[in-house]
What does this fold into?
Amino acid sequence: MSDSVSVRVNGKPVTVRAGATVAVAVLAAGATCRASVTGQPRSPLCGMGTCFECRVAINGEPQRRSCQVLCEAGMEIEANG
Amino acid sequence: MDSVRHLSFDVAVVGAGPAGIAAALAAADSGVTVGLIDDNPAAGGQIWRGVQSAPQNSASSIWFQRLNKSAVQLVRGARVFHAAKGELAAESDDSAIQISYGKLILTTGARELFLPFPGWTLPNVTGAGGLQALLKSGLDIAGKRVVIAGTGPLLLAVAAYARKCGAKVVAICEQTTRSRMVRFGMKMLLVPGKAPEALRFAYELRGIPHWTDCWPVAAFGSRRIESVRISRQGQTSEIECDYLACGFHLIPNVELPRMCGCRLESGFVHVNEYQQTSAPGIYCAGEPTGIGGLELALAEGEVAGYAATNWEDRAKHLFAKRARYGKGVRILKDAFPLRPELKNLARPDTLVCRCEDVPHERLREHGCWRAAKLHARCGMGPCQGRVCAPAAEFLFGWQIDSVRPPVFPVRCASLAAVPSHSAAARN
It folds into this structure.
């Protein structure tokens, strides 16, 4: 089993350790997770699935809490850039 | 297309942190079917997040080994959003899940209290436990400058963990007073298991400034935090940092217990000596019954698991252990009261509700939480007030008492899968 996994955040390849969450990949890519309803950049606050600040689109599915989803090879993640 | 899964257990346990794992294993001792349901991708809760891949943590690995060998069915990545008599409705990534149960044990854990201050919505301003959770989830923080702020012993644990991960911990800002901190330290030495922990932290945190009477006043940065202004014993100063990890206590996750009709007392789920709630057949253990930490959660979980399977003798055997670890709860509560200055950190334009971007000035004109929700949309976003309601409770003294299904935002297909008789039975 490989100890790292590669995904794409806004089209940019990012490699994180196996078992890392999508939130970690977004931060590693230098992106923020979502734009708030007034357009502010947001990234994880609670890290445990309650605050919903870390929402991104994963493989086209929007509004996923990135801190609760593990990276899988080839995942396409759309974050706030 | 969503499918619907049907599961049935003699005992269903919601929340696979330490209390839930202990409860599930104790219940399984009787040979009944046990389901352990959790929102996260793996069991362990927050304190044991990510440690399954790091087996050197001996305390947790024993529990994980027992769990893996047991007949307990772990249902991961499943958010429970509705509860009715004998039934739970949950949702996973690809399906709706209907769970019927005989007895229910709620081990829903705790989250952090966040308080608004200017700049608290900037990226890389996280919770204290929030940063730790991200680190356990693989965040690379090597060489980054981190300020840790808020209150309580969690700050020390987070600082030690961040340093171990290679972070440069610039300072720990503790809002409580020096004298309370010292008194707390003395008292904790008398709680079993805490003295070695305290000494370990003292060693691991050597050289890191630990300031009391100190809290963040504002965070600055364009796309993410670049510096934080702190107040320290009446003086303000600015510290450059890459992360600010800030949390003001743990608060119990009581949404599900509340929806199940469990009576609360002072914000916590009321239980009897068998961890039984006021709702028939429903038990509760761990942080929702009082913030007490790992050992107490394990003991309470075991009591609940045995009690739920009518094994009172085994449950009674654990009463003494539970009572020993229970001491820390009161000490914690007394040592870290939040100072009133923290109520004045938010400026008129500081957001309180981060989901709907509702500023402080739009809240203070309302007299209660309900009015603030209706008129300003505070707490109406996807977190359902999990962040802003406890903050509003502290800032404005509002009573937050309403909860209604679904307790998490879910897909329409999952809502549609809730049996109509159970929805009708609720209201």
Summary: Chain B touches chain A at residues 39-41, 46, 49-50, 53, 77, 93, 111-112, 114, 121, 123-127, 129-134, 137-140, 223-224, 253, 354-357, 381-383, 386-387, 409 (CB under 8 Å). Chain B has a mean pLDDT of 92. The longest helix of chain B spans residues 319-335. The two ends of chain B are 29 Å apart (CA to CA).
